[in-house]
Amino acid sequence: MIALRSILFNAAFYINLIARMILFSPYYFLADRKAAWSVPKNWVRANHWLQKVIVGTTFEIEGLENIPQGGYIFAPKHQSFWDAYALLPWLDDPFYILKRELTWIPLFGQYITRMRMVPVNRGAKGKVMAEVLERTKQQLRDGRQLIIYPEGTRRPAGAPPNYKYGIARLYRDLDVPVVPVVMHPGLFWPRRKFLRFPGHFKVQILPPIAPGMDPDAFMEKLVDVMETASDKLLVETIRANPQVPLREDARRRFAELTASDPGAELR
């Protein structure tokens, strides 16, 4: 049944994407840019509904009061494709620094260009990267929110942390708050897998880290607050969803975190 529901959801997900990109393109490209955000944000809300109805996966968000006004760096854990889009409706005017090849994809590339994303050649250095940084600063001065994944790429739930120092450099150079976000959607939408699992999980938006810290001290604090909250949430999520099959990383980390708890065995 899970396999069938996963197939149906994956099909509905891409049909929803393609249909909306075609049907709403006239409005998207003719409307005011910020008003046009309603198209992708409504696509996200539709995906949440499809995942709830077809698969049985739901979520809740804690800590929305921690989101500051104006420009900031939004720094979530990255475990699956779900967290690449799922929180867009709760951000005012977000943007990504992304590889320029994505802008070459027909129609999709025009969609992301319309939202003034910051494309970059990953092999670029020197003057080009300085220009990227200046464009990013201007976006933040305009009150936008830069989405950066501190670990760079998707990591399985429970995997050892692998934070990249690039976010500390951006924190130093951009001089804006960083909002850490932890969650475990990878338990329900595993990376590189087509299966989608039912259950309920939380997204926790943590208090922002104010600008002005030494980059090394910032990095130490970011890793500490995110991993502490992530570990606690992992245990809570696994205990609340005993039906979800655990990959080795999640099983191992759960065992480590609950080794001193006599009532912690997996149900």
Automatic annotation (TrEMBL):
<feature type="domain" description="Phospholipid/glycerol acyltransferase">
    <location>
        <begin position="72"/>
        <end position="186"/>
    </location>
</feature>
<keyword id="KW-0012">Acyltransferase</keyword>
<comment type="pathway">
    <text>Lipid metabolism.</text>
</comment>
<dbReference type="GO" id="GO:0006654">
    <property type="term" value="P:phosphatidic acid biosynthetic process"/>
</dbReference>
<protein>
    <submittedName>
        <fullName>Acyl-phosphate glycerol 3-phosphate acyltransferase</fullName>
    </submittedName>
</protein>
<keyword id="KW-0472">Membrane</keyword>
<keyword id="KW-0812">Transmembrane</keyword>
<dbReference type="GO" id="GO:0003841">
    <property type="term" value="F:1-acylglycerol-3-phosphate O-acyltransferase activity"/>
</dbReference>
<keyword id="KW-0808">Transferase</keyword>
<feature type="transmembrane region" description="Helical">
    <location>
        <begin position="7"/>
        <end position="30"/>
    </location>
</feature>
<keyword id="KW-1133">Transmembrane helix</keyword>
<dbReference type="Pfam" id="PF01553">
    <property type="entry name" value="Acyltransferase"/>
</dbReference>
<dbReference type="InterPro" id="IPR002123">
    <property type="entry name" value="Plipid/glycerol_acylTrfase"/>
</dbReference>
